[in-house]
Amino acid sequence: IPSVSNIVPESCLLIVVGLLVGGLIKGVGEKPPILKSDIFFLFLLPPIILDAGYFLPLRQFTENLGTILIFAVVGTLWNAFFLGGLMYAVCQLGGPGLNHIGLLANLLFGSIISAVDPVAVLAVFEEIHINELLHILVFGESLLNDAVTVVLYHLFEEFATFEQVTILDIVLGFFSFFVVSLGGVFVGVIYGVITAFTSRFTSHIRVIEPLFVFLYSYMAYLSAELFHLSGIMALIASGVVMRPYVEANISHKSHTTIKYFLKMWSSVSETLIFIFLGVSTVAGHHYWNWTFVISTLLFCLIARVLGVLVLTWFINKFRIVKLTPKDQFIIAYGGLRGAIAFSLCYLLDYKHFGMRDMFLTAIITVIFFTVFVQGMTIRPLVDLLAVKKKQETKRSINEEIHTQFLDHLLTGIEDICGHYGHHHWKDKLNRFNKKYVKKCLIAGERSKEPQLIAFYHKMEMKQAIELVESGGIGKIPSAVSTVSIQNINPKTLPVERILPALSKDKEEEIRKILRNNLQKTRQRLRSYNRHTLVADPYEEAWNQMLLRRQKARQLEQKMNNYLTVPAHKLDSPTMCRARIGSDPLAYEPKADSENLPIITIDPASPQSPESVDLANEEPKGCGGLPPSPEEDEEGLVMRVKEPSSPGTDDVFTPGTNNSPSNQRMLRCLSDPGPRPEPEEGEPFIPKGQ
C-alpha cells in the first residue's frame, strides 16, 4: 500500500506487526517469545553493522570524522550524565516508589538510553533520502557511540557491585574507554588484513570467496566481544580495511554475491529486530510509573537538543562548511533510540537492579516515541524546511575526475604552505598503501599501476574472442583495436553484427579503475615555507637592466623630435672584417684618444657573422661647439668589444637588423652635425701615425 508506506516508516509498520503477532499468541493462551539479548547481539546485530561498515561512504566519513567523534563521544557522555543526574533528582523527589533508586542505577539507565541506535537511524534515514552530510553525521554518530555506551554500561554495572567506589576506579574507568574503542578498532584492522591476504590465494576456488569475508568479519566481532571490547567498532574497522583489497582479488560474481547477500541479511535482521520489539512489548513484564516514564522522555529530548546546539556552536568555529540551523534541527530530531537500548536493559541482573522492569517500560516508551512520532514526522519536516536531498543519480566520470583534481590541487597547496592538513596525510597514506601494502595484499598484476591498461587489454581480448567464436565482425567498438582483430581473424567481413553495450557492472568497474588510477601528486615529499625561500642572486641585475631599457625608450622618444637626417647605411660585417684584416693599424687605439668618440666592434666569427654593433658613439659638436679640425682629421677610433659581464644588459641590446626602432637609434648615433664635405681622394678612416 504505497499511500501508507509513504507516511509511516517501515520500522513502525514492523513494530505494529510484532504487536499484532504478540497479541495473537497471547490471545490463544501461549507465551510470546521475548527478544533475548544473546540472540540480538550474536546473530541479529552483526549483519546490520557489517553491511554498514563494508559499504561505508569512506570519503564523507573521513572528511567529517572530527565532527562525528565530537557528537559520538562528547554528546553521548553529556546525554548520559545529564539524563542520569536529572533522573536521580526526580527519583529523590518522586515519592516512595522511586526513592530506593540510587545514583549509579540512574547513571546506568542514562548510559543505556542516551545512545543513538544505528538500526533505527538506518531504517528511517534511508527512506527520507537526506543529503550525504546529515546522513553520515547522524549514522556515524550512531556507529561510533557504541564504545562510549559499552564502557559506561560495564563501568556502572561493575560499580553497582562495589561497596565503595574510589578515585582509582574512576581513573581506570576513564582509561578503559580508550582500551575498548582503540582495542576494537585494532582487532578489526587485524582481521581485515587477514581477510585481504587470504583473498590473494582464492583464484582457483572462486565459490568460497564470499565465505571468507563473512567468516573473518564475524570472527572480528566475536573476538572483540570476548574481551569486552567494542564489537561494532571491530566490524566497522574490518569492513573498511578489507574492502579495497578484497574487491581487487575476488571475481565479479563473488563481489555481487557479497553485496546482495549482505543487503538481504541485514534487511532480514532489521525486520526481525523490529518485529521482536513489538512481540516483547506484549510479552514482557512492565512496571508503569508516570513520573519516571514522562521525565525520561522529556529529559531525553531536552538533553539531545541542548547537546546538539552547544556542540554545533563549538564545531562551527573549525568547520569550513558550517552546520546551518536546519541541519542542527535534523541532527537533533534524528536521534532515534532502538533495540540496542532494549537488549542492554534486558541484560541487567535482577539481584542488583530490582527496578529493571520499570527501566524496560521507560525504554520501550522512548523507543516507540522516537520511532513512531519522530520517524513519521521527519519526512514532512524535511520537505517543509527544504533540506537538501540526496542525489539519486551517480556522479559522472567528469565530476569524479575534477574531484580528484581538486584533491591533488589542495594537497599541493598544503605542501607549498607547509600546512599538514588532512589532504596531506591522506596523500601520504595513499602513497604508503600503493608502495607497500598493495604489493602484499593484492595478487598478480592488479597490485601494479596502471590497472586501466590491463583492464583494457582484458576487455579487448574478450571481445575479440567473442567475435571469433561468433564468426563475424560487425561494428567494432572503440575498445577493440583493429590490429588485434586482424591478428585473430584476418578474413573477409561477414554480415554486420552489433555488439551489446557495456553492462552496468562493467561500467562501474571502469569508473572504479579511473577513480583509483588518476595521476598521483607529490612524487617527492618536500614542504616549502615563505620564510625559507632562497633569494634570487640575479634579481638586482635584472631590475637594473629593466631600468636601463626604460631609460633607452625615453631617450628614443625625445630624440625622435629632432631627427630629420636619414641614417647612414652601415657596411656589412663582411666588409668590416675585410678592412680590419687588410689594414689593422687603422683600428689600433691611439694614445690621445680618451676623449674621442669610439665605435666598439666585436670581430664576428664565421659562426655568427652579424655580431657587430655600435656603442658609446657621441656626435661631434653636440656640446654646442663646432668640431675642431684635429677631430675632423683624426676621425673615429674603433676598439674591439670586450666580453660582457653577467650583470650587463645583454638581453635588451638592440640588434643590427633594419627594424624601425634600430633605424631611429642609428639615425641618432650617426648625425654628428655640420661638417665639411670630405675630398674625393680622402680615405674612409685615416691611418694612425
UniProtKB/TrEMBL annotation:
Residues 480-564 form the Sodium/hydrogen exchanger regulatory region domain. Residues 602-689 are annotated as: Disordered. It holds the Pfam family Na_H_Exchanger. InterPro entries: Cation/H_exchanger_CPA1, Cation/H_exchanger_TM, NaH_exchanger, NHE-1-like, NHE_CaM-bd. Keywords: Antiport, Calmodulin-binding, Cell membrane, Coiled coil, Glycoprotein, Ion transport, Lipoprotein, Membrane, Palmitate, Phosphoprotein, Sodium, Sodium transport, Transmembrane, Transmembrane helix, Transport, Ubl conjugation. Residues 504-531 form a coiled coil. It is found in: Basolateral cell membrane. It is a multi-pass membrane protein. The keyword Coiled coil applies. The chain crosses the membrane at residues 6-25, 37-56, 68-91, 103-124, 136-156, 168-194, 214-241, 262-284, 290-316, 328-347, 359-382. Its main location: membrane. One of its GO terms (biological process) is regulation of intracellular pH. It catalyses: Na(+)(in) + H(+)(out) = Na(+)(out) + H(+)(in); Li(+)(in) + Na(+)(out) = Li(+)(out) + Na(+)(in); Li(+)(out) + H(+)(in) = Li(+)(in) + H(+)(out). Residues 8-382 form the Cation/H+ exchanger transmembrane domain. GO terms for molecular function: calmodulin binding; potassium:proton antiporter activity; sodium:proton antiporter activity. Residues 654-664 have a biased composition (Polar residues). Gene3D superfamilies: 6.10.140.1330, 6.10.250.1040, 6.10.250.2020. One of its GO terms (cellular component) is basolateral plasma membrane. It comes from the Eukaryota. Belongs to the monovalent cation:proton antiporter 1 (CPA1) transporter (TC 2.A.36) family. This is Sodium/hydrogen exchanger. It comes from Centropus unirufus.
